[in-house]
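Hi P.,

Sorry for the delay on this. The queue was packed all week, but I finally got your sequence through. Input first:
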Amino acid sequence: MPSAIGTTENKFMPPSHCQCGQLIFFENAQCLKCQSPVGICPSCWNLTSLKPASSSADEGIVCLHQGCGVKLRICQNQRLHGFCNCLVESSESNEAFCVFCRLNEMIPDLSIPGNLDKWRKLETAKRRTLFGTHQAGFPFGPHQEELQPPLKFSFKSDYSEPVTTGHFQGSITINLREADEVERERARVNLGEPQRTLIGHFRHELGHYYWSLLVENTCVDAFRNLFGDERNPDYASAQQIYYSNGPAYNWSMNYISAYASMHPWEDFAETFNAYLDMRAVLATASFFGLSRVKRMSVKRMVAEYGRIGVIANEMSRDMGLIDLVPTIVNSPVIEKMEFIHDLTKSSP
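Then the structure:
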């Protein structure tokens, strides 16, 4: 594990601009001003304007991002369900799924009323999360299947049998109920969480995945020095202790959240989540001129995140909303974030 902490440039997907100058956002499939199609190009990894490749509808579309010009087709989920704005290269078939959608092992039963809308929300959150994960430097992309274990997603309903959101051997399962705002808020209140979001679920579970991919067989000793020994106590015992006794009263001195104090695996996943939260917020702040620093160390990122967080939280309170940045990042957590940041240097 490298000991030197370098700098990083925030490249998460903030808003972009259409060829006509109009602001376009990550979820847009069309410019609201000139009506041009927009989407995520899998070749240059940009949210960009598109144009027809020719007068023939069968010829697809072309990425207009500077220097790209790749011919593309729409994703099969856009064709069938109208909710994916990532493209596939024209060399693939008309029925091809994009780099995000092809990771699905299981989707909900769409014949059940309401499931399509819930799945749409989950896919939107998954797409934004994975794009940011890729931009942060963690391995993900067209050759995801070459990673071991490969990343997969299952979206399941618990109306007929219990479903637990979690990760196992590269497969991330998300309970469809999490896409129900009322159910999600009820769970947040019952569990005493400051926030509970779909993007937060994806980032947390991806933390478990990247522990398996990048830590377990490469730098586990360095991990244990910071996060603790995941073998003692074992996960099941730690879980039972946590839910019986709750977190230690002073958990905030060493952890990003109360849940992180349960077990080193959860500490890593919660810290990974917070690291990606920070990177995304700072990238958006930079796009809108709220932060002028493009490249910064993890310590500098944390300081800037705190500054932006104070502003964002006061705006949220002005509207009677939950704080956007509900956590304080202390020195032990910064060290853990530096560890996670360094993992990108040794990624496959």
